[in-house]
Automatic annotation (TrEMBL):
PROSITE patterns: ABC_TRANSPORTER_1 (PS00211), ABC_TRANSPORTER_2 (PS50893). InterPro entries: AAA+_ATPase, ABC_Ni/Peptide_Import, ABC_transporter-like_ATP-bd, ABC_transporter-like_CS, Oligopep_ABC_C, P-loop_NTPase. Pfam families: ABC_tran, oligo_HPY. Keywords: ATP-binding, Cell membrane, Membrane, Nucleotide-binding, Transport. One of its GO terms (cellular component) is plasma membrane. It comes from Brevibacillus fluminis. It is a peripheral membrane protein. One of its GO terms (molecular function) is ATP binding. It is found in: Cell membrane. The lineage of its organism: Bacteria, Bacillati, Bacillota, Bacilli, Bacillales. This is ABC transporter ATP-binding protein. GO terms for biological process: peptide transport. CDD domains: ABC_NikE_OppD_transporters. Its main location: membrane.
Amino acid sequence: MKQLLNMEDVQVRIKTHTQEITALELEHLTLHEGELVALVGETGSGKSMTASSIMQLFPTQKAYIGSGRIVFEGTDLLTCSRKQLDHIRGKEITMIFQDPMSSLNPVFRIGDPIIDVIRTHTGVSTKEARERAIQALKFVGLPDPARMLNRYPHELSGGQRQRVMIAMAMVCEPKLLIADEPTTALDVTIQSQILYLIDKLKKEKGTSVLFITHNLGVVAKMADRIAVMYAGRIVETGRTQAVFRSPRHPYTRMLLDAIPRISEERDRLPVISGRVLSPAEVGGGCRFANRCPRVTDQCRQAVPPLATVGDWHEAACFEPLEEAR
């Protein structure tokens, strides 16, 4: 498969009142055409910050990309002009967020931003843009799409609003869709429908997907590859089934062990003791050292690089787990 996105040595820094901290240190992350890569990890691990760095849309003006390369189809996004970046965002790369209500402007009908996106990136007439918007709403399974264009966000359910966001994201047929926990605020039944739509987009349109989630069950079902993040770094990456079958980083193993299984009787669920260090607390060693059962002096003194531990399988650990046989 042809490589679509390549992130190398990306460092995101945040200025505070007293210091400047490094929130994200990404050695490398790749995404190929037609592939779904899942980013997983605890809250605060850097998943959404990774997405923000690709889009260069940070929640605060105090955050910035200090170094690295983000290459999309041969173009380094960090060297693009604002005009080039505006062309790529919304057309070649799009993003959907976990709370569709806060992503839609309550004073505009839902058709307005969809038509605006189409006209901005294609230059077609308003009439043609409206027809494309109707087709996009039809693709995501919304009933009576022509009438739906004239409704306001508060008139729709949470699942319907997320379908609108997916329609807006795919209407210009992007090559990369970033889905930042798109099902978190939805009930289980609606979650399944939204996941089906994302999978449909990948299979029918050939769209590559960077899927951010806490749900390892979803990852096992949908993802081609997985990247596990911890405290702003990728600690393990590989083909999904290989990582699930034989995790090599202790953090990945502990995440998988914490999943409740209906086939096992447990009095108490396993937990990962301790807490994730904040960026301001990170020292010079492995960021998982304070919680790791396999920690050594080397772990506390040096940062383990991502190293090959198998076919398409890498782990950032000085004491990786043995490969399962």
